[in-house]
Each structure stands twice: as C-alpha cells, then as structure tokens.
Amino acid sequence: MSGYPDKPSGHVSGSVKGRRADAQRNRERILHAARELVHEPGELKLNAVAKACGIGQGTLYRHFPTREDLLAEVYRREMDELVAEAPRLLEIHPPLEALAAWFDRVAAYARVKRDVFAAVEAGTWRDLAAHSLGPIGEAVELLLAAGREAGSVRADAEARDVIVLISWLSRLDDAELDARGSRLLSILVDGLRARRP
C-alpha cells in the first residue's frame, strides 16, 4: 500500500518522503517567520505567523499546538545554532578570533532570547534558560580551552564568568544593543586576552 513501509525492505514510498519533506519545509518556514515576527511590537499571533508563511493555521497547529511551543522551539533553534558555531569557528580561526566571532553571533542570540523570554510565561523561560546553560557553557569552555592551550586566553578565564557577562546583552533594547553590543563584546575579548609578561 502506498505510503507504508514495504514489507521486507523497510523502504518508504516516495509519496511519504515527499510529504515528510514538505512538512519539514513548512516547519522551517514557520520557525523563520516566528523568529522575525517575535521582534515586532505586541504579542506574537499564530495567525500572523501562518499568514507570513503562506500556510493554513491547521498546518501551523500540527507543528506547534501552542504559541509557547513555537516560541520555545524558536529559542532552542537559536541556542543550538549558537552552540554549533563554536567548533565551526575554531576550525577556521585562531582561538581568540574564533571567540570574538562567536561573540558577534551571541548578539543575535541575545535579541531572540530577550524577545522570546518577554513573550512566554515565567515558568517556560526559566525552563528554557536552565536547559540552555549547559550547552552554551560547553561552547564557551570549548573556545576558552582552545585559547588557553594556544596561550591567547588568560588561564583563569572560566565559562561561567563569560556567561554572566554576555547574559547582560539580552537586557538591552535593540537601539542600545546596536550602539553598544559590539563594543561591549570587544571589551570582553580584551579582558579574556592573555597578558604577555
């Protein structure tokens, strides 16, 4: 029967693969639209997200039954992308440059974090924050450890210190983040730099 695994091979028919690909594309479009719309003033409306994607509300609800489900996934996606960026940057830059480039990505993450946390209930954002602390701490430690090993990052730099300092970015509004974000992060990079005797 079309759409079901064929019995001995486990092969899935092309029509099911096509539907899965369509569903995945819809999911990506929903997340992209929600990420853009969460910055807009006022409460994020699911019908506005569906309209921005050109999909029906039923399709959106199949992926994300509630607004909080959608916003939580927007935040998780942003956090996952931020964490994945650390090893990628270390492959193409010396450690201190990788750290500085990663901090540039932190500024975008801070905007999404601020807007999502403002839009969800306190219990949800506390859960999201608790979940993200481990992976982000690991990404920071990866960058710091590479810098310590290369002698470009001070030996006493700890991931927790960096997280406390960069968490302040999510408290800034867009204008202040645009005006001060890069400078604040460059000051942080300078503070992490190993001092030459």
UniProtKB/TrEMBL annotation:
InterPro entries: Homeodomain-like_sf, HTH-type_TetR-like_transc_reg, HTH_TetR, Tet_transcr_reg_TetR-rel_C_sf, TetR_SbtR-like_C. Signal peptide: none annotated. Residues 1-25 are annotated as: Disordered. GO terms for molecular function: DNA-binding transcription factor activity; transcription cis-regulatory region binding. Residues 45-64 bind DNA. Residues 24-82 form the HTH tetR-type domain. The keyword Lipid metabolism does not apply. It comes from the Bacteria. Pfam families: TetR_C_43, TetR_N. This is TetR family transcriptional regulator.
